[in-house]
Design goal:
The chain is α+β, with helices and mostly antiparallel strands. About 55% of the residues lie in helices and about 10% in strands. The protein contains 18 helices and twelve strands. The chain has a five-stranded antiparallel β-sheet with strand order 3-12-11-8-9. It has a five-stranded antiparallel β-sheet with strand order 4-5-6-7-10. The radius of gyration is 28 Å and the shape is globular. This is SpoIIE family protein phosphatase.
């Protein structure tokens, strides 16, 4: 056994070393901030694919390739030694995690395995490698302290892209049991689709036209037509095109600041885009492969049933029960995946409680299904006593609406940086999301409040008015103009200002609350009834007001499982206690 093991190591080590070394030179060609830091690090894909195909036998080749490649690029023995260890550990850690949590080595064999690969099969190793590599460069004065975190992020994202895009490509194309057998006509067709992916990617990441969505159909068609072979090859081609053009300062993800092109900011959005595209392609593949396996299993089951139809009914019933168990198992798996999607969407909402001076704030969301299309977010700038609040409602329900709400979340960057210009921020959100809206639409509202003075500004895009219940019980509604967010029309939003007084209660909501109705009835809960309820209990603590509202709506609907839309309610009470008063 040892002789066989040593023979395999002796054979594969030089092959892996050469592949790792060559791919490292490709990565160094697009390095920036430091000569050893690349925004895309293909060798990690080589390392992980080698381990998935060969097992730990590949470790010597990976380490030699990593160490010598880094020494060849920067002739400093200590850093090359440590970076080599970090690169090797990176691939090995992710390899062990993938082997532990998945049934197959193939990361895109099934939807469950793919989810594990995308979530925990790339992050840990990338983090370890980035820590070891960047710290060694900093310790031996190849990197200044000011650039440490910029280089760390770039290193980390480069490792992630190597694992996400390069590793599946190499595994799929070099696995001995999954060879692509195509006649010449099919080979030409695959080549044409890949050329179309490259051309559409070049157009999408040019500065001439805002056509970011253009490569997506070609990647999808290539993935469906050629399964894992088309998906991995098309995502690599698109990633190469996107990264090179973005680093060159072109395309929608090329972010600029006062000093010029901001590579790190650009990579944040570019990596998210590439993650989504590769995820879509891989999920299409896994869904298709699972469907084919299910169809094959169903065909075999049908053949068995035809052969056994002469047997007793008792045997037939047993077969039906077995098939029902398989279906139930599949349903359970889908439920698990929906639970994971729910946890991911919950992370889009604010995770930290904010406590602005002079304001109480409480928001709550209950989706109709496990995931939904409502979203809210906060910005609190204590040094300026500025509070910003965002709320939106994506049309539709379930997973499509949830995916669009995630896209809306990524479009809030400008508002987070400067929550004052509400009209400009609404239009910025629209410009970021309209390429993916299609038949959907979004309603949204933005609120800005100087908590020290009570000066409030409100703007909306087809959403509810801002309701303000005065301490006396009087109702004020702010109704500035603003159309819903669609790809067709501009918002044309206006801003309306208002001066709050101590005890004023602000109400923000989505239409799931007002449109709730009894089963088999057209009578809705209604805006007037909702505001009357809140006005009657306005002096109670916010959480009690919120609980009573949700209990009333859910009771009218016939229970939590019977609600017919996502429910979101936000309450903000202005106390008028400024920082100066608090100190006094």
């Amino acid at each position: 056994m040892k002789t066989v093991l040593y023979t395999r190591i002796f054979i594969w080590t030089p092959i892996i070393f050469i592949g790792y070394f060559i791919s490292a030179q490709i990565g160094f060609k697009i390095a920036f901030l430091n000569s050893q830091v690349s925004p895309v690090w293909p060798p990690e894909g080589v390392g992980l694919a080698s381990l998935l195909l060969l097992g730990p036998v590949a470790l010597p080749g990976i380490y030699l390739g990593a160490t010598l490649a880094n020494f060849f690029n920067n002739p400093h023995l200590q850093t090359a030694f440590i970076i080599g260890i970090g690169n090797t550990l990176s691939s090995y850690i992710n390899y062990r995690i993938i082997k532990k949590v998945t049934e197959k080595s193939d990361p895109i064999y099934s939807t469950k395995d793919l989810i594990y690969f995308l979530s925990i099969g790339t992050f840990p190793g990338s983090f370890v490698s980035a820590i070891m590599g960047v710290t060694s460069l900093w310790y031996w004065d190849f990197l200044s302290s000011e650039l440490y975190f910029n280089v760390f992020f770039t290193w980390f994202s480069g490792e992630m892209l190597g694992f996400l895009i390069v590793a599946p490509l190499l595994y799929v194309w070099f696995h001995p049991k999954s060879k692509l057998k195509l006649e010449l006509r099919k080979q030409i067709e695959l080549l044409l689709w890949i050329i179309l992916v490259y051309i559409s990617g070049s157009i999408a990441f040019s500065d001439e036209w805002p056509l970011l969505f253009l490569p997506i159909p070609f990647v999808i068609v290539t993935s469906i037509r050629f399964r894992q072979f088309g998906a991995t090859l098309s995502t690599v081609v698109l990633a190469f095109t996107a990264v090179t053009l973005t680093i060159d300062g072109k395309g929608v993800f090329a972010r600029r600041d006062a000093s010029g092109l901001s590579i790190n900011d650009s990579l944040i959005f570019l990596d998210a885009f590439l993650f989504c595209i590769s995820g879509i392609a891989y999920f299409l593949v896994t869904a298709t492969r699972e469907r084919e396996r299910a169809q094959l299993a169903s065909l075999k089951s049908l053949q068995v049933l035809n052969e056994l139809k002469e047997k007793a009914n008792e045997e037939l019933e047993q077969k039906v029960l077995e098939r029902t168990a398989v279906i139930e198992e599949q349903r359970t798996e889908i439920e698990k995946q929906l639970d994971m999607a729910k946890r991911i969407q919950e992370s889009l909402f604010p995770q930290k409680e904010i406590k602005p001076q002079g304001v109480e704030i409480l928001f709550k969301n209950i989706p109709m299904m496990k995931v939904g299309g409502d979203l809210y977010d906060f910005v609190w700038k204590p040094e300026k006593q500025e509070l910003g609040v965002f709320i939106c409602d994506v049309s539709g329900h379930g997973i499509p609406a949830a995916l669009l709400s995630a896209l809306v979340k990524t479009s809030l960057e400008k508002w987070k940086q400067d929550p004052v210009g509400l009209k400009d921020n609404l239009e910025s959100i629209r410009q970021r999301i309209i390429p993916n809206l299609r038949e959907h639409f979004v309603t949204a509202s933005l609120l800005h409040l100087y908590t020290g003075t009570g000066s409030l500004t409100f703007a909306r895009a087809g959403h509810f008015p801002l309701f303000i219940i005065r301490k006396s019980g009087a109702l004020v509604s702010l109704k500035p103009m603003g159309r819903i967010i669609t790809p067709i029309f501009e918002i044309l939003a206006e801003e309306e200002r208002f001066q709050l007084e101590t005890g004023d209660l602000i109400v923000m909501l989505t239409d799931g609350l007002t449109e709730a109705r009894e089963p088999n009835s057209l009578q809705m809960f209604g805006e007037e009834r909702l505001l009357h309820l809140i006005r009657d209990i306005r002096s109670l603590p916010l959480f009690e007001i919120q609980d009573q509202v949700f209990q009333s709506v859910i009771q009218l609907s016939g229970g939590i499982t019977a609600i017919q839309d996502d429910l979101t309610l936000g309450l903000i009470r202005y106390s008028g206690i400024t920082v100066e008063k608090a100190k006094t």
